Amino acid sequence: MSQTSDPDRLAAIEQWVINVCAQLGLPLSGVDDDFFDAGGTSLAVVRLVARAEEEFGADALTPEELIEQSTVREIAAVILRNSTIGNVPSAAEH
Fold first, then answer.
1. Whole-number Å distance between alpha carbons of 6 and 20
2. pTM of the model
3. Domain over 6-84 is classified CATH 1.10.540.10
4. 20 to 30 Å CA-CA from 21: which of 3, 27, 38, 52?
């Protein structure tokens, strides 16, 4: 079992989502910010999904999940739930 608690892991993934979205040109700054309200497009969906799979494993985030659950908090929760990589970062690592 991981030494990092789920709230810590969730906070780290939330920060990861914010950072990746910033790299995609989307100005998200808080956990309640919405991917699509920030200008997310279908191309940005594909890019975020691909980055999530690279970082957290296959099917960590699907396009359908992102479309249905599009706030930073919701996206991070989906990634945490679906993650196949045991080393989800802690908040201190980001």
1. 21
2. 0.84
3. no
4. 3
